[in-house]
Amino acid sequence: MNSTPGQESESLVSVRNLYRYFNVSGGWLDQISISKGKMVRKVEMVKALNGINLEIEKGEALCLVGESGCGKTTVGRTVMGLLSPTRGSVHYRESRIDTLDRKGMLPFRRKMQMIFQNHHASLNPRKTVAKTLLEPIRFHQPELSLPEQRDKVASIMESVGVDAGWGARFPHEFSGGQRQRISIARALIVDPEFIVADEPISALDVSIQAQVLNLLMEAREERGLTYLFVTHDLSVVEHFGSRVAVMYLGRVCEVGQVGEVFSEPRHPYTQALLSAIPKVGGEKRRHVKLKGEVPTPIDLPSGCIFHSRCPHAREICSKEAPELVSAGEWTDVACHGVRENWF
Amino acid sequence: MSSDTLEISGSFRKRLLDSPVYYSFVRNPTAMASAAVLASFILSSALAPWLAPFDPWDQTQFDIMDSEIPPAGSDGADGRFLLGTDAMGRDMLSTILYGTGISIVIGVFATILQAAIGVTVGLAAGYFGGRLDSFLMRIADIQLSFTTLMVAIIILAVFQTTVGPRFHEDFAVMIIILVIGVAEWPQYARTVRACVLGEKKKEYVDAARVIGLGPTRILYRHILPNTFSPLLVISTVQVANAIITEAALSFLGLGMPVTKPSLGALIRNGFEFIFSGAWWITAFPAVVLVVLILSINLLGDWLRDVLNPRLYEK
User: Fold this and answer.
1) Facing A124 at nearest CB: one of B10, B209, B222
2) Within 10 A of A181 (CB to CB), how many other CB atoms are there?
3) Closest Cα in chain A, distance from residue B224 (Å)
4) Cβ separation B203–A117 shorter than 8 A
5) Among A10, A201, A287, B77, which is disulfide-ready with A209 (CB 3.0 to 4.6 Å)?
6) Domains of chain B (ranges plus CATH)?
7) Cβ-defined contact of A164 to B9 (cutoff 8 Å)
8) Alpha carbon of A317: minimum distance to chain B alpha carbons (Å)
9) Torsion sign over Cα B225, B36, B28, B236
10) Chain A within 8 Å of B203 (Cβ-Cβ)?
11) How many angstroms separate the CA atoms of B168 and B161, rounded?
12) Cα separation of the two ends of chain A
C-alpha cells in the first residue's frame, strides 16, 4: 500500500483479503429443484465482499463510499465482528480478531465501538437513556463505584450536548438528532480508540447533519479517535475524511487521500461517481454517464468487476481482476487501464 | 454537572400515570368495570377464610340434614345459607368463595408455568434460529396437535388410578397446574419467537453485541422487555383458558376432588340435581365462572386494543 510515504505509520485496523458471502437460497429443502427430470441442489450466494484490503491508520478518518448494495456496511459490520468473514481476516494492532469468540473479543470491545444509522432502532425503547449509557460502563468497568459511573454518564451526556438531567427519559422522548447524539455517547463512554460509523447522519435532517458531523469531528480531535466512516454522501467525505476508499460490488476500486482522489480521480468508476456531485457555479465537471445497471452480486462479472460498464474496457479486463496498485502520490487504484496508461 | 443531576429511571408512579395504558383505562368504562369485577373476585376469594360463613373443606362443619336447602327468598330457605346448600349440606356461598380461589390460583399459576417454558423456548428459537429453531418449533407443533383437554385427560386419568384418591386430593392443584402449563406452552413460544425475529434485526441488539454482552443477557434484558405487550395480551387469554380447561376437567371428574371443589367441580356436583329442582347448586357457580371469564376476556380485549402500536404510534 502506498498511503503515507516518507514515514512508517502504524496501522490500527487492517482488513486483509476479506470475502463475505450471504446464502440467499434458504434451507436445504428450498435449494432442491427439478430440472430435466433430475433433482438438482442449487445454492445461491450474494457475494457482498470480494477481496477487500484496507489499512486504517491511527488517527485518520477513512471514509468508505459507494452506491447502495456495494458492501460498505458489510465491511463495517465484519470489522466489528457482527458478521464473520467467509474468507480473509481482520486485524487490530496486528492481533487477528475475526476468529475470536465473544470472551476473547472483550478486550477489543472497549477499543472498538460502532455508531449506527437508524436512530429509531439503535436505542432500546424500553430503557431510559441513562440505563442505556450505564450498561457499557457497568459491563466493562465493574470496578467503578456507582457515583463514579453516574459521573461518567453525566459528563458524557454533557459532552455530546444532551442535558444530563434528561437521563430518566426514554428514547422516544428525544428528537432524531438527540438520539443520534446519545448513540454517539454510548460508543464514546468506554473510551474507544476506533469507531465504525455506519452512515451515522444519513437518517437525519440536513440541518442536524452538520451538528452531528461536527460532534464526531470534535470527538476525533479531543480523543484521538480513528474512524471508519461508511457513507454514500460525497460532500461529507470531502468535509470529514482524511482518506477515502471507493467501493464497487464488494471490491475497492480506488483508495487514497481525499484531496487527491477528489481533484484527480483515476479509476473510471470514481470518475463517474464524482462527476455526479451537483455543483453550484464554478467550472462544470464533464458528466460521465455509465451504461447499464450494476450487475447482480449473485453472478459477478469475470475479471475486473467493473468491466461490463467501463467506457475504457479492453479484452484483459474481462479475464483478469486488477489488484490495487499505487497510481498517484497517495493513491492506490485497481484498474488495468490506469496501470498501463490507456486513458 | 455532577452525578446528582443524573436520574437513571423516573418514578414508576409518574410513568404509569403518563402511560397510554392508564390514559385509556380511565376513559374506558368496560375496562374499569371488568377490572372492578375481577378485583372483587380475587379479593373475596383471597379473604374467603374470613368472609365465608362456613369452612367447606372441614367436614365437621356441615350436616347431611341441611342438604339441598334453597337460596334465600325461596320456599324452605334457611337464613344461615344465603345461596342454599348442596347435596352434602355445604353452604353454597362458602363453597363458591373457596372454589373461585382455587380456579384463579390454577389459572394464574398454569399461565406462569406456560410463560416460563414458552418464553425460554421462544427466545432461544427466535434468536439462534437455524436447526435449533426448526427443532423447537416442530416440538411445539407436535404439542399443539394434541388438544390440551386430551393431554390433560390422559395424564390425569393415569395419575388418579396409579396414586390413589387420597394422594390425588392432596396434590390435585399442583398436578392440574402442571398439566395445563405443559400442554399450552407453544402459544407463548410462538408469540415470543415471532417478536424476537422482528426485534433481533434492530440496531439496539447489534449495539448490545458491540458492547460485548452475552446472548442470555441480550435476550432477557434487551429483547424480552420489547415483547411484553403481546405477552401481556395473550396472558389474559391464557388465564381465562386455563380456568375453563380446569373447569372442564373438573366437570369430567378429572380435576379437583369433591372435598376441595373448584368452580368446575361445583358445577358438576350440582349437575345431577338440576332436574330434581335443586338448580342453585349448579347455577350459582356457573354464573360466577361465566362472569369471571367474561371480565378477564374483556380486560384482555381492551389491553389488546391499547397495546396495538398501530393505534397510537403513528
Assistant:
1) B222
2) 22
3) 10
4) yes
5) A201
6) 51-312 (1.10.3720.10)
7) no
8) 39
9) positive
10) yes
11) 9
12) 23
| Helix %, strand %, coil % of chain B (to 5) | 75, 0, 25
A80, A147, A150 ranked by CB distance to B210: nearest: A80
A169 touches chain B (CB under 8 A): yes
Q: Note whether B151 contacts A: Cβ–Cβ < 8 A.
A: no
Strands, sheet with A87-92, edge to edge from the N-terminal-most edge strand: A45-57, A11-23, A87-92, A95-96
* Cβ within 8 Å of A, B 14-73: none
Q: What distance in Å separates the CA atoms of residue A254 and residue A234, rounded to the nearest whole number?
A: 14
From A312-321, B10-19, B186-195, B305-314, the region with the lowest mean pLDDT: B305-314
- Contact (Cβ atoms closer than 8 angstroms) between residue A129 and residue A185: no
pLDDT in tens, A242-265: 999 999 999 999 999 999 999 889
Interface mutation vs chain A, best among B4, B8, B224, most A CBs within 10 Å: B8
Which tens digit of pLDDT belongs to each residue from A160-218? 999 988 888 889 889 999 999 999 999 999 999 999 999 998 888 888 899 999 999 99
Beta bridge partners of residue A38, listed in sequence order:
A35
Residue range A11-111+192-340 in CATH 3.40.50.300: yes
Q: Measured between alpha carbons, how far is A339 from A187 in angstroms, rounded to an integer?
A: 41
A245, containing H or E segment: strand A243-248
Amino acid occupying residue B288: V
Tell me whether residues B226 and A165 touch, CB distance under 8 A: no
- Please check whether residue A59 is in contact with residue A226, taking contact to mean a CB–CB distance below 8 angstroms: yes
For an interface test with B, give the residue of A83, A92, A126, A133 to mutate (most B CBs within 10 A). A126
String of DSSP letters for A79-96 = HTTSS--SEEEEEETTEE
Q: Which amino acid is at B240?
A: A
Tell me which residue has cell 371480565.
B295
* Extents of the domains making up chain A: 11-111+192-340
Q: Which residues contact A30 (CB under 8 A, 6 or more apart)?
A: none
Q: Is A128–B207 a contact, with Cβ atoms under 8 angstroms apart?
A: no
Q: Quick one: which of B276, B286, B298 has its CA closest to B248?
A: B286
> Is residue B63's pLDDT more than 90?
no
